[in-house]
Amino acid sequence: MVMIMEQQGNRWTRKRARKKVEKLEQQAEQKVKERVDDTAVTADAEKNAHYLVKLLGDSADVISRVFTIQYAPDRKAAVLYIDGLVNMAIVDQFILHPLMVEGERLKVKTDLWQMVNESLVQTGEMKQSTKMQEIVNGLLSGDTILFVDGSDTGLIIGTRGWEKRGVSEPRAEAVIRGPREGLTETIRINTSMIRRRLKDPDLRLKNYMVGKRTKTNVSLFYIEGVADPKVVQEVEKRIQNIQIDGVLESGYIEELIQDQIWTPFPQLQNTERPDAVVGHLLEGKVAILVDGTPNTLIAPAVFTQFYYSPEDYYERYLITSFLRMIRLLSLFIAMLLPALYIAFVSFHPEMIPSKLAIAMAAGRATVPFPSIVEALIMETSVEVLREASIRLPGPIGPTIGIVGALVIGDAAVSAGLVSPAMVIIVGLTTISSYANPYYNAAISLRLIRFPLMIVAATLGLYGITLALMLILLHLVQLKSFGVPYLAPFSPVNWTDMKDTLIRVPWQWMKDRPKLMKPGDTQRQEEGGNTT
């Protein structure tokens, strides 16, 4: 018995000792990672390479190559890169080949580091750094690192060449007339697409690195002299104040920099269209691009711009104005139609025309539920079908969504669970919600619809009126980077109303929107484009 107890005690002691060693190793590794901010590049190339390999945990995709430079056989160099993030043709032909083969043919006697930096490495993008933190960031971003014996400086060579998606039309922002190309997940492709459309020397681009672990590249675009400097400074400040371990999509940035959290209404607009980004930049707004996502954020944002389509500026003003009125009508239908049906049926049947009231009563004769339950059943079913159709693969999704809605609606009416009028109401509501050009604004209406249905079932039209007043008060006090959310209606600005509910001809819109406080207010030269 004593021997068994001794054996168990020894096992416990060994286990504690092993845990202590593991803890000490983790602490040592953590200290190395924390010291990387203060670590400088040494004059020993092999030592620098070994440090980086250990810092990255001897990862299998971290390639380290130590070799001798032919120009100086007594000096070594080290190249490091991450497999899959670099263009191997550039590494082989323009870094390794000149250093290992062509260097021996050069007869000019000069400083080795100067020769490597100015002659041997034949790439366009190159940066010197003495800080190991910058070296690590470059390595993890897809650059190739070069160390040379005798120099305490590392070269960060631009060799990024990972696989990427090609340019294609945005699925959620399709237009009949207009460009067919959309932004991609690679930030440099996106910046080039914007610059190709906006050849202005005043276009400014500022880069930030957000996320303690992901170190996601974030770019801020604006036109100097057009964008309000206060807005630019505020956006910069909020981006720089983000303290989070990772940013995987622009939605992280949107939620972290928006003015108010407790609201269903989006305070920044997102778009996948480069032409839409340029259009907003020309109005004095700023664009926030995030690496790894095609969705670009536009700030500031006001309520009316979520119901504009880029196509509004490619078609003539009469067509645009008609389409905007259709979208405005669909907004009210998507938000209020089920609530109004519930209020009329439950509280105000006298407001329904007699023949229509008789037809609706006949349809509801076999329905065992009150109108609010009937509406909630149908609305919930449609929301489930809508979400399921998005998750289903390829072309099957929309087909299943449409067929499922028809089958469920017909079966519900046949079973006497809902009335035919409710099926029509829910169908019109669903179709109207799709008329919104932007997905995040359409979701806001879907969220608001349910509280409106509940107050309609409780207080009738009085409840709907009260709820609409509260929503309006909420919208009035909302701001996006200092710009009132309901501008130009609150506060009233008659000049900016030329491009709100309707769009007037371009000849009448000579100035940029004043609500953005642009530096250069003039969009067209005086006396030009007149008829």
TrEMBL record:
The chain crosses the membrane at residues 325-344, 415-435, 447-476. Pfam families: GerA (PF03323). It comes from the Bacteria. One of its GO terms (cellular component) is membrane. Keywords: Membrane, Transmembrane, Transmembrane helix. One of its GO terms (biological process) is spore germination. Belongs to the GerABKA family. This is Spore germination protein. It comes from Polycladomyces abyssicola.
